[in-house]
Fold this sequence. Notes:
The protein is built from 4 helices and 12 strands; from the N terminus they run H-E-E-E-E-E-E-E-H-E-H-E-E-E-E-H. The chain is of the alpha+beta class and 256 residues long. It has a domain at 136-251: Beta Barrel (Thrombin, subunit H), CATH 2.40.10. It has a 6-stranded antiparallel barrel. The chain is globular, with a radius of gyration of 20 Å. It starts with a helix and ends in a 5-residue tail after the last helix.
Amino acid sequence: MRYSISFAFIVLLSFFTGSTHAHDMVDLVKQIKPSVVGIGVHTPMGRPKNQLRGSGFVIGNGQYVATNQHVLPELLNSETLQQMAVFVGTGKSAKVRKAEVVAESKYYDLAILKIEGTPLPAMKLAKDDFWPEGSEVGFTGFPIGAILGLYPVTHKAMIASITPVAIPVQDTRDMTITMLKRLRDPYMVYQLDGTAYPGNSGSALYDATNGEVIAVINKVFVQTTKEAVISNPSGITYAIPIRHLKKLMKDKNIPF
């Protein structure tokens, strides 16, 4: 009889604990979504006028946005008055904010943009320490956003490993100076068991319990070709620890 009562109590406790955790995640996503933005280009005299290239999130005093450096366009077309843009809001009601790149690091694949207009809700950045393996995390962004539109999507994941950054190449002739430097002195990144897709680049990776940003999603391991990542994802995603973003912000006197 004692065993039956104890077992029933454990089942009941698990039910309420799980229910509370799910409810917390609902509240957390609702809190985070206003800080999630799209990163791209606005072309007043071209078609399409707006092109989404990746995801980003608001930091600092609400006038700055963090993303990946590889999300930025290599060149803007001055003839069509093309400019960097941050897309704020959801779907067809999203607004275009002009943006200026104020800091970037190709080595850490990070960039910071300053946006025009009123400040937006900023996400809180976590401490520099690495979060332990097994920690539950989330990331919200725009997977395949160029096709599906500006509708934020949230994924849950677990920190599977803390591992040296690696850039596999098929031929040593494809190696760049940056790649060689990383191989000689690699920095540590988070490996996740969640699947990111094209468009998720630049998304904030946050603690699933309190919403603090611990890293920036920057790439997914591709098994075959980039085209196959949608139909045959590897389920392995990498993220740059927040300490490198905070260092970039400090170098440019951006508050956090």
